[in-house]
UniProtKB/TrEMBL annotation:
KW Transmembrane (keyword) present: yes
Record's protein name: CHRNA7
UniProt domain Neurotransmitter-gated ion-channel ligand-binding: residue ranges: 26-223
Subcellular location field: Membrane
Amino acid sequence: MLVLLCLLSLCSDSYMYSAKDIKQLKYDIFESRQYDYSIRPSKNFSEPIEIYIKFCVLGINDIDEVNQRFVTSGKLDIEWKDDYLDWNITEYNNISSLSVQHYSVWRPDIALNNGHSSTGNLHLSEFDIIVFNTGLIKWTPYSIFETKCEINTMYFPFDKQFCEVEFVLWTASAIGSRFRKAEVEVSTLHVRGEWKFVNVDASIINNGSLHKTVFKFNLQRKPGKVILEFVLPAVIISLMDLMTFCIPCGSGEKISFTTTIFLALAVYSTVLTSMLPATSSNCILGIYLKAQMVIEACIAIVAALQVRLFHCKNKDKLPKWMLRFCQWSLNHKRKRKIHACDRRVSILSLSVYENRKDNSGCKEENNNSTPHNINFEDVCHQIDRVAGLVFFAFHVLHSLLIVL
């Protein structure tokens, strides 16, 4: 027990130092040695100072699609070797590290290369610097970085974005330094808003006088909120325009209904435009809305012509093309009924079919709609039936083209 207490006392004494020891160490380094922070701290000027940088990302605060801005927060672990800041720890009561103010030692002129509002110094001078007895310098500043990010919204809201944060040695050619190693840490990363973090890569570019480190973030949008609040209502409104052909021409609501649908699509298109940057490529969702607005305009034209025909006097003579259109539509409808009856005959026996022929409604209808008794109201009904099928096919076709 006594031996253990002695060992503990020796260990505690070996790591105990006072403010006097720290003052003496600072005096010897900065006064006796006449340390000059304006001179590159390398005894061999033919070799550049190698800088290690590590970006500890704490949060992705914002991705502004309209202003194309990428905002992150985190700290930088920057390390380099100063040949003039080393000492023997046994001479200073085992002091292995020293905290000094930023203006006391030489620092690499690291700047944000792709800043959104400005490019230049990081303004991180208020953070102290840790000096180790081996000459290793560690600087850990914290800041919020606003960088430019070109947003590609072609596949909105299922898009992926790649945003970069670039750090450059602003006066690298004059002071003789370069980046040697770059790392990134995302263990405490928090992503705000509708984005999901995928990964981040760190790379170094040392090309002549250009020395920079690039941290490339890969992000994916969470489409759930956009689908529920924007895409789904837009699709429902697009399907509702087909209901125009279910409204009778005599109700007086046909034109007002299709105009309301067109205005709703125009509003959604305006809202989508305000959400995306003006310099981005065309969005697939925007193309879908524009195409749907064109279809809706065609539906409005057909509806206006229908209303015009509906209010024509029945005693007026129908044009030949209207008679042919109605005959074609009625014949097509009659053929479908005959095919349906033929399918039913294949299931029922021939005797049962003959007994129930009159009650099943499968008997070929008498052609009551002859060219002599077809009026404008009949023409409008046939237009509703045929145009509804045609525009439904257009809607399905352009939706498949957008998806594929």
